[in-house]
Amino acid sequence: MLRSLYNTIVKDKNAGSRCTFHVSQGDLANSRKDWAFAIRHYRKALEINPGLTATWVQLGHSYRESGDTDAAQDAYEKAVKLAPSSDDAYFFLGVTLRSKGENHAAFDAYVKAFELKPDGAAARELAGFIGIKDEFADFYAAVNGMFDRAYYIKANSDLRQSDIDPKLHYMLYGWKENRAPSAFFDPQFYRLKYRKRLKAGQNPLVHYWKVGRNLSLLTNPSGTQSWLTPTAPEKEAWDGLQPARKDAETEAVVILPVYKGHDETLRSIYNAVAGRAGESYSLLVINDCGPDKALNAELERLASLGLFDYHVNPTNLGFVQTCNRGILEFSRDKDVVLLNSDAFVPVGWFTRMKAHVEKDPLIATVTPLSNNATICSYPVNDADNFRALELGPEELDVLAAETNPGLNVETPTGVGFCFFMKRAVIDEIGALDPVAFKLGYGEENDFCMRALEAGYKNVIATDIFVFHVGSVSFSASKDANFNAGQKALDIKHPNYTLMTRRHVNADPTRYSRMRLDVRRLVRAIHAPVIFITHAWGGGIETYLDTKRAELDRQGKPHLTISVRDRSFVSIETSDNPYIFAPNLSSLDLRLDFELFGSLIRDLKPTLLHINSFAGLEWVHQKALLEFISNAEIPYRYVAHDYSAVSRFYHLTRPDNIYRGLPDWQEIESWSRMIEHGPADMSSIAERRATYSRFLSKADAVEFPSAATRRVFENFYSDFTAEVIPHEEPFRTDERAVRRLEDGKIRVASIGAIGPHKGSDVILALARHAVSHDLDIEYSIIGYSDQDAAMKAAGVNVTGAYSSEDEVIEHLKEIQPDLVFISSVWPETYCYTLSIPIALKLPVMVFDLGAQGERAAELPWSVRLDPRLINAPNKLSNDIAELDIDELWSLLDPSE
Prior knowledge:
This protein has 35 helices and 24 strands.
């Protein structure tokens, strides 16, 4: 026995020695990249001891390097099975799977490696894998904190046909496609609204998770709460309700088919009974053999109280046949309203619905507005508006009744959630089609098309709002049933899809939705400051950001009206209160000027803060100027440009020849030139007369610089002037550091450099430097209107930036000797100049306007004779001769 034990110990010891030997030989071969020899020894070691996790990993490496990815995958999988906590094993399994094109499995393996070691190689690999510039750890934390699996499946029907995990899909593809990770985070909205806060390429979800949520930034345009979560009424709530049963006074029967959905159904029935309030309809509830025993029992109890007519189908008939039973068997000669069991009618709804039918004998069907009813939806058309507005559904219905009394629009089809059907039309064309639409999904559309073919109308009543929960169950089978219904519609009515598509494009309910948005704004915002500006961004936007922030700090309401695209205006409220009014994002002044004017008057603003009308055609600009002049509302005008003088807002000739400050006669001569920029073409006399009156009636005309005031005084005299320099939004403790002497002069320009910003000058300087072998290098931190030509001339163009921080980073990288503000027009302030001033970088400007005025205060600036705009060769030589050492010596190091 002792000898046997001794032999076992010796045998194990020898096995261990042999195992160690093979591992060491494999490692040695591995270091020599002798993969075949390494594989042979690692395999022998694992035959002796298959529990060596690290050796399985090394074997996987050797197989992978030798090109046998299947064997490598097998080795790594054995390693992770042996040691689920081995981040190395998962990481290299991911590497191997990715090399095989199995990206989904590779991503899973990388994520497991990351979870085991967040600061390991997997984090870098994952960031590159999915293409984010943020740290993967931040992205992963944001996704885990914000991703809603159920919503993502609901919102993306393509995933219901796919086997991919929804969260994996979002991380690999969804964020790149701007898909929302949850119902309450809209990445496009967040990116646009907070574009100045996000760094270039930063994921909006990551920014919100790390920064935005602590600042309570908005995550979507309409709120963070669901509008209504239906709950069943308490038993005592039913006490005292007046019965809604059919009697001699009944004019219409409301048919409510029931199957399941306890709380929604009982709330829907309660609203239909309570909302009757003397109206001439009855309520018929038909139970299609629903499976919810508690719901069935409660329906029996309520029916026994005589609150509504109640029938139970002998067998499950389905939605269409249940409706037809109500239409043909129980309602007989009455008009009917089909009401979904998750739709909640308000008080007074039926009287308004009936009024539409009585007004026009050709109306066959009526559908109200709703939050979730495709072409009848509000506030966003053809959408599920599940997020709460600032008022409840009942309040919105009251507002609709007050705002759009008697208004309806014709439509090719109604929507079945709350659907009035005229009895005379039913008798003529028949009820719902239970054969073509056995499973539903299209039966009401078919009825509408048949009514249309018979010469009747279908209308959407925009003075009624009925809340509709909508389907909460989404599946591939439901998608298939819907598609089958659409196919049946197209077979029966080959023009159905064409008509509905044209209806959606024409958007007839737009006007009524706009009116509702206007009334909601007036209801929610009292005595605001209204900013009017263009939609082009730039310096005006920077200025307005500071003004709006000041009002926010003071708790004063404000909203911004942006003019754009020749005849359109967009209206956006502040964040507090933020009123979601999407139908006011494109008011067309050709059609909606009266509505726009009533909005301004009804808001009773404390001040109209006029900044720019650039982008509007003159006819609309003139109308606005006259409206404001006559509105008896205080207003001030800020001269950000010279649009009050000319449609050439920068006072530069269309051919960009510099001739100094023009007079009225010269500006009129420019009008004879061909140019393709400004939209607001007008005669000089008409513009002068209109603006003279507008400026004279303003409480104040505000100038950002004395230079701008002097320009204006060349053209107008009757106004109250105030020179108020813009508040500096850009502050930094950083200071520019001069690079080591290298014999070159580096010149950087900043911004979006178009002709008025001196793009022709920069291009000519760059070409001259190349052709004359001058040691001058030009960079544009931003972009120009002729980037290709700039780059061909050796100009370094960085591309657009999103923040001043990015500008600073570019400046650190380029290390220019001076910044060239190359504008060839008399700027009114020039925010771009603020950056080199704050950094203490030498600057060079043409001695024009505000840029010349501001540079005059800087000992370390170069102010150029504006005539050099037309003489780039001389300017280039002058730059080459600049004493850069002296410029930098004038900087005060103590500041």
